[in-house]
Design brief:
The chain has helices at residues 5-21, 23-30, 35-38, 41-61, 71-89, 91-95, 102-113, 129-152, 154-157, 176-204, 209-220, 243-254, 258-267, 272-275, 277-300, 306-321, 336-345, 361-379, 396-422, 427-438, 446-449, 460-474, 478-481, 486-489; strands spanning 388-389, 392-393. By secondary structure, the chain is an all-alpha fold. The relative contact order is 0.11.
């Protein structure tokens, strides 16, 4: 029998906690020097009251000890909590000075919490400070949330091959609440440390403190929300320190497995940062793609030096690859090759257990391992070959999970793209929007939703479809899809 009490209790507590955090941007608006912006405090006050009373009421009505949460309840809890946080997180955006309807606010909140970075907000340069901070906070919450999920929940749920990380997540099967608390606190401390370090670096190299704070949160979360219409490009003026390189470094840090950072701190296992196969594969991919794009930049811009070409290439490659979505230039102007190149790499993503998005590097490693074993068995039918990941043998259930994930991932992408085309979007916009949503990248391709545009002009139906795609992509597809099957709700 599916027990709903633990689901309602935990979801209620999370919603109430989200409501309390709304007091932070409320205070920021109250302290604003702009009288118009100062009036926005009421939007967050109302949002906080609704979230605290609704979430607190649900928690109070279901209060009591939780002995364990089964796998089915784990699926439902994950989906319900993320969707509820988006629903309530959108309230102050809809009521505030951004002048958004609830559908737009829902899209913005979903983009924030899933760290997608797609936005419908225009004129960010003059937006209320509280709203800008709230967008950044949502991405920061989403980043730490997906880290905790990747090590404390998804391995036990065996979603998309994540079970191979179960030994790194401690034994949390059937005991999500009991062990996840201590584990998540330690992961959060590391996450906070990197956020503070990023803020200090950006501030020290010339970015205003307010912008540095917001960009630090969205950089480590690999989210991509900015305080400026020109994104990070607004700060790369002549004579300014190379802030893009600092952001690139922290985007890479945010894309590495935080569980390995934790192991390095607790057990002094620092060599794993250099020997872990997933990290090494990820860095190799980043280096290879950067070289390809750097050569392309040097080809199309004859007056650009090697260092400038490297900066342009590495920043945009890392930004798209990790799903961050920051922009320093409109790479649509780099020609058809660049458009196709960035469209393809947006699906890759970073490491499992990081804040990054996409299909994750480890799944490509597992797929390649399966291909190697299959090829050897064809050549040597009587041979015994075992695929391994980080020195551990891979079982058949991991292969099935990963290959199923690939199939469902691209089937979902194709479905979203077809639905968007049916709403009248042109082919490039529909394909890139679908890919950007499910890969949680943010900017798409073309003049409408490319790095120089946003999603404001899309119809509401398209925004809701894309919001659903963001949630599916962020929660690894099966976490949502499994609860839509009739078998899930049977006894």
């Amino acid at each position: 029998m599916l027990a709903l009490r633990p689901v309602l209790l935990v979801t209620g507590v999370l919603v109430a906690a989200l409501g309390l955090t709304m007091l932070i941007p409320m205070c920021v608006d109250l302290l604003s020097a702009d009288e118009t912006h100062r009036a926005d405090w009421s939007a967050f006050a109302i949002g906080a009251i609704i979230a605290v009373f609704t979430g607190g009421g649900a928690a109070a009505a279901t209060w009591g000890p939780i002995e364990r949460i089964s796998v089915r309840e784990g699926f439902l809890l994950t989906a319900a909590s993320w969707l509820s946080l988006v629903v309530f997180g959108a309230i102050p955006l809809a009521l505030g000075g951004l002048n958004l309807g609830y559908v737009d606010a829902f899209f913005e909140a979903m983009s924030g919490l899933t760290t997608t970075g797609a936005t419908v907000v225009t004129d960010l340069d003059h937006a209320p400070p509280g709203a800008l901070l709230w967008r950044s906070m949502l991405q920061w919450f989403g980043g730490v949330g997906i880290i905790i999920m990747a090590f404390a929940v998804l391995p036990a749920l065996k979603v998309g091959g994540m079970q191979i990380f179960k030994t790194e997540a401690w034994d949390t099967s059937e005991k999500y609440i009991a062990n996840a608390t201590q584990y998540s606190l330690m992961l959060t401390q590391i996450y906070v440390f990197f956020t503070i370090l990023c803020f200090i670096a950006l501030w020290a190299f010339g970015m205003p403190a307010w912008d540095a704070l917001n960009h630090a949160m969205t950089t480590v979360a690999t989210g991509g929300f900015s305080t400026r219409d020109a994104s990070l490009g607004a700060f790369l003026t002549v004579g300014r320190a190379p802030l893009d390189l600092i952001v690139t470094l922290f985007m890479i840090i945010g894309s590495l497995p935080f569980g390995i950072f934790l192991a390095s701190v607790l057990r002094g296992d620092w060599p794993r940062l250099f020997t872990d196969s997933q990290i090494r594969f990820f860095i190799t991919v980043v280096a290879g793609l950067t070289i390809i794009m750097m050569l392309r930049v040097l080809t199309i811009f004859e007056d650009v030096g090697i260092f400038t070409a490297f900066r342009l290439a590495v920043f945009n490659v890392v930004s798209v690859l990790t799903g961050t979505g920051f922009a320093t230039t409109d790479y649509n102007a780099w020609g058809p090759f660049a458009v196709g190149f960035f469209f393809c790499i947006m699906f890759i993503g970073g490491c499992a257990g990081s804040t990054s998005c996409g299909m994750k590097i480890f799944r490509f490693q597992v797929a390649l391992a399966a291909l190697r074993v299959y090829s050897r068995r064809l050549a040597h039918p009587n041979g015994v070959f075992v695929a391994r990941y980080n020195g551990r043998p891979l079982t058949d259930d991991v292969f099935v999970s990963v290959l199923s994930f690939f199939f469902v991932y691209f089937a979902t992408f194709a479905t979203i793209a077809a639905l968007l085309s049916g709403l009248g979007l042109d082919t490039l916009t529909a394909l890139s929007a679908a890919g950007s949503a499910i890969a949680n990248v943010g900017p798409g391709l073309g003049d409408i939703i490319g790095p120089a545009g946003n999603y404001a002009s899309l119809p509401d139906a398209a925004k809701l479809i894309l919001a659903a795609g963001m949630l599916l992509g962020r929660l690894e597809l099966f976490t949502i899809l499994v609860i839509l099957t009739p078998a899930f709700w049977r006894g």
